[in-house]
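At this stage, I wrote out one protein's amino acid sequence and its backbone structure tokens, and that material follows here:
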Amino acid sequence: MRPNEVMKSLETLIEIGQPVFIWGAPGVGKTSIVKQVAKKMDRELQTIIATLLDPVDLRGLPNFDKEREIVKWFRPVFLPTKNKTILFFDDLPTAPPLVQAACYELILENRVGEHILPPDTAKIAAGNRETDRALVNRIPTPLANRFVHINFEVNTEDWEEWGYRNGIANEVIGFIKYRPNLLFNFDPQKNEKSFPTPRSWEMVSKILKAGNENYELVAGAIGEGPATEFISYLKLYKTLPDIDIIFTDPEKATVPSEPALLYAVVTGIVPKVSKKNFKNVMKYAERIPGDFSVLLIKDIAKIHEFVFNTPEFETWAKTHADIII
């Protein structure tokens, strides 16, 4: 299931109070998408890193009540007390079996020991698959049967839309458009420390924004082969014409002939589009090759809905109807 579909599914399952388990390879964005859903639904997110817990941690520390001669348990700080909370069990399959067993009561009964969760607490779990060679323990059948299970798949278009909205460096988005197979390239049979994933490309974006283009740093995030290609792309990226001219004088703005540079131009334009400069952007869109023109308008429309209500778009759509179809 692609990321945008996962988001919609999570919203539905949270609304009906159904626990859900997200399965996916390392670094694809499982944790990130849960955070996005929590923000969108205005719910507090409480994360439990299951692999770091002992079974007794969920119940809390004992406290002897001398007057009543009974033992009470201090409530763990990570257990929700507020309404509309998402309780997120991250990396649940990596937790020891006894910790998974301790999660039974929380997920099945909405409580652990004497600690009762608010009735509208949503439960989400996530973890790597056994085929990913991650250190996972099999989820017991009674616990697994309480979840709706979703397989998280990497999707380039969804990631690019997320990248535009979350400030991922234009160089990174442009490179992924040019080499989409390198957004995620994980082989569980290889013992690689670094490899391309949505998470590691976000690391590369942060490195670039810090003003560093060091090959060793980039390779440390995404691996040597992809880093070599990306650094070569950066050198080409620096030969781009001044993108700002497109917004002020689109008729004189340079149209690159290299496909890699055209991808870079598209990703450089999209974040800067506004209602004020959209007419000039459309003039430039008419000058670039048809496939890239469609790509440009498609990407703009992902984050600017006003596009569809403009006369410029209507005229452009008629001109490029054969490519759009």
User: Anything to note?
Assistant: The first helix runs from residue 3 to 15.
